[in-house]
Design brief:
- The complex is a heterodimer.
- By secondary structure, chain A is an all-alpha fold.
- Chain A has two domains: about 50 residues, no CATH class; about 240 residues, MetI-like fold (Orthogonal Bundle).
- Helix content of chain A is about 75%, strand content about 0%.
- Chain A has twelve helices and no strands.
- The radius of gyration of chain A is 25 Å and the shape is globular.
- Chain B contains nine helices and 20 strands.
- In chain B, strands 6-7-8-3-9-10 form a six-stranded mixed sheet, with helices on both faces. Chain B has a five-stranded antiparallel sheet with strand order 13-12-11-14-20, with no helix packed on it. Chain B has a five-stranded antiparallel sheet with strand order 15-19-16-17-18, with no helix packed on it.
- In chain B, a hairpin with a 2-residue loop joins strand 12 and strand 13.
- The longest helix of chain B has 18 residues.
- Chain B starts with a strand and ends with a strand.
- Classes of the chains: A mainly alpha, B alpha+beta.
- Chains A and B meet through helix 8 and helix 9 of A and strand 6 and helix 3 of B.
């Protein structure tokens, strides 16, 4: 038996040995491209955030730009707006996704068309949805005209401001519409695997509808829902094109604020723009890290994602 | 504890062809009834209907003479244990077992004492705080059983709970379920496709073939006195030969056999005899003679295919002394022959 074990290990080593270098060689070109373009850009960005700006002859490194950005009231306004929009759109999308997933899981084998329709937003780029939102939700958009045709309003100015508005309604609606299918698909895969059977177990163990949702469905979907929501939060927090098109001029979301600073005619505003970008990246990275930690903890507890 | 009555139950999926048609069954208080049949015959569907997870197309279900057909599962006094343990992965063993009590808002010392009692009964002492993924398959199925038993249901529904376990574990679990059923006296419906499991564990067995209930009775009745050739075949009957009743005897190519049953004269009948009931011996002149076509060693016995007067018989012989092409003598005990009208 021992001899057999040794033989197996030996075979494993000899089989794996040539594989390792060939993998590095195969992945090498791709890694170099990613490393130079992404890593180089990142290093350059970090250097600029610390004050290194060759074109402006600024070569002294300091944390001054971080202090400037963090103490700037505009940054804090943008940070709160960004947190509000990312949190609101994530929570609304998560809540609606749970409802949609619970509805879909009962249809799993009955109506594949509904499944397909609900997944359509996954394929549509954010930019397209943002432009569609302008056509639909602006004061002169389709909804406004429809309301006028129905006699609900007399002029387009009476139509509530849904884009470029103070509460970021247009941005939130766009992200909710776009992210619901993503979160739903994540939850649905868990629910379809064992969820239905566990709910049947719950039924025979005398759990009523609410108890089944509270004590079975929620714990089952929580790891997937949490991870998916954190991903959505991170994406929404750092996304640019939708708030750029649908956001108000002040305060702006952080990504737009960073871009405005970076593209400012004053070259010395550029480091603060890039510093904001780095801060966004740090917050997003921490969020993704949190999603990973949640996933690992739940897996260790035996919950399959 | 409770009695169960099923009346004219018809079940189908999505309005398609009926899986079960006009199914009737009575189960007495405290009885362990085996629901036996080949895979896909609708046994689990019946169990799900009893649990309330499927609504029947027709018929009614009475628990303790109360019609529960329209009641949802949570309002019925029946608990189901599924084929897979289906434990809640986010709860430990004790939390899984106490789930039903928690749903009934029973908490505190009483709940803990009930959990401890059930842990003892299902031989899971000391496992209360274990995570369910740390348990073996057999232990998981015991938790699943404990989770159902703690509610002390009137009817316990077991849907092939042993089918995912290996042979040794299955035997251990059979004994445990029997012991628990005897101790608790809970009316139990036990679904299985394994005939030996049904015969061993049930006080009575209901055999379902082709969506219909074919025979209900004590395990010995189904095994030794099948009502038709299909039932005999299901229980391993493999020797069938035909003949006619003449002068009070059953005349067949294998000889004349006296008949004890009240049978019509000059009517064709199909006879069956179990392979282990045929007595085989080295060739002699006293008995029916035959030649062994082939043999198959099965451990405790050897299966022999014997050609005898144009009829092929299968015989189970103890040991492994017989070889292919050997001439042998057979004795077919008349009292072990079972006759069915040929058109059945």
């Amino acid at each position: 038996m021992k001899g057999h074990q040794l033989q197996t290990n030996h075979n494993f080593r000899t089989r794996m040995a040539p594989v390792m270098p060939s993998l590095s060689i195969l992945l090498g070109p791709a890694l170099i491209v990613v490393g130079v373009l992404f890593g180089g850009g990142l290093i350059l960005g970090i250097l600029q955030s610390f004050g290194y700006l060759h074109v402006a002859a600024a070569n002294h490194l300091s944390i001054q730009h971080y202090l400037n950005v963090l103490m700037d009231p505009d940054f804090l306004e943008s940070l709160w707006l960004t947190l509000y929009i990312a949190t609101a759109s994530t929570l609304i999308a998560a809540g609606l996704s749970v409802a949609v997933a619970l509805f879909l899981v009962t249809l799993a084998h009955k109506n594949r068309l509904i499944h397909f329709i609900i997944q359509i937003p996954l394929t549509v780029p954010h930019l397209v949805i943002a432009v569609a939102a302008v056509f639909m939700l602006s004061p002169t958009g389709l909804l406004s005209r429809f309301a006028m045709a129905l006699g609900l309003i007399n002029t387009s100015s009476q139509f509530p401001l849904l884009i470029n508005d103070r509460w970021g309604i247009g941005i939130i609606l766009t992200y909710v519409w776009k992210e619901i299918p993503f979160i739903t698909v994540m939850i649905l895969s868990v629910l379809s695997n064992t969820g239905i059977e566990l709910l049947q177990v719950g039924q025979t163990l005398k759990a009523n509808r609410w108890q089944r949702f509270r004590y079975i469905t929620l714990p089952i979907i929580f790891p997937s829902l949490g991870a998916a929501s954190l991903i959505v939060f991170a994406y929404t927090f750092g996304a640019f094109e939708v708030p750029y098109l649908l956001g108000q001029t002040y305060p702006m979301m952080l990504s737009v604020w960073a871009y405005r600073n970076y593209s400012d005619i004053d070259l010395l505003a550029r480091p603060e723009g890039i510093t904001t970008g780095i801060l966004i990246a740090v917050i997003v990275s921490l969020t993704v890290l949190m999603a990973q930690v949640i996933t690992k903890i739940t897996r260790r507890k035996g919950i399959v994602l | 504890m409770g009695s169960l009555k099923i009346r004219n139950l018809s079940l189908s999926y999505n309005g398609g062809a009926p899986v079960i048609e006009k199914f009737n069954l009575d189960v007495s208080d405290g009885e362990c009834m085996g629901l036996l049949g080949p895979s896909g015959v609708g046994k689990t569907t019946i169990l799900k209907a009893l649990a309330g997870l499927i609504q029947p197309d027709q018929g009614c279900i009475l628990i303790d003479d109360v019609d529960v057909t329209a009641l949802p599962p949570e309002k019925r006094d029946a608990v189901m244990v599924f084929q897979k343990p289906l434990l809640f992965p986010f709860m430990n063993v004790a939390q899984n077992i106490g789930f039903g009590l928690r749903m009934r808002k029973i908490n505190g010392a009483h709940k803990q004492s009930e959990i401890n009692n059930i842990l003892r009964l299902t031989r899971l002492d000391g496992f209360g705080r274990h995570k369910v993924h740390e348990l073996s398959g057999g232990q998981q199925q015991r938790v699943s059983l404990a989770r159902a038993l703690i509610l002390r249901p009137a009817i316990l529904l077991l849907d092939e709970p042993l089918s995912n376990l290996d042979a040794n574990l299955r035997q251990e679990m059979r004994e445990l379920i029997q012991e628990i059923q005897t101790k608790t006296n809970i009316t139990t419906i036990f679904v299985t496709h394994d005939q030996s499991e049904a015969l061993m564990m049930s006080q009575r067995v209901s055999l379902i073939l082709d969506g219909r209930l074919r025979q209900v009775g004590r395990p010995q009745d189904l095994f030794y006195r099948p009502v038709d050739p299909d039932v005999a075949r299901f229980f391993g009957g493999c020797n069938f030969f035909t003949g006619e009743i003449k002068n009070g005897q059953f005349e067949t190519p294998l000889g004349l056999f006296p008949v004890g049953q009240d049978l019509k004269k000059n009517q064709p009948y199909t006879a069956t005899i179990r392979p282990e009931d045929i007595v085989i011996s080295p060739a002699n002149d006293k008995h029916l003679r035959g030649a062994i076509l082939r043999t198959n060693f099965e451990g405790a016995a050897t299966r022999l295919w014997v050609q005898c007067n144009g009829v092929q018989l299968i015989v189970l012989a103890a040991g492994a002394q017989y070889k292919a092409h050997q001439n042998v003598s057979l004795h077919i005990p008349p009292d072990k022959i079972r006759l069915f009208p040929k058109n059945v």
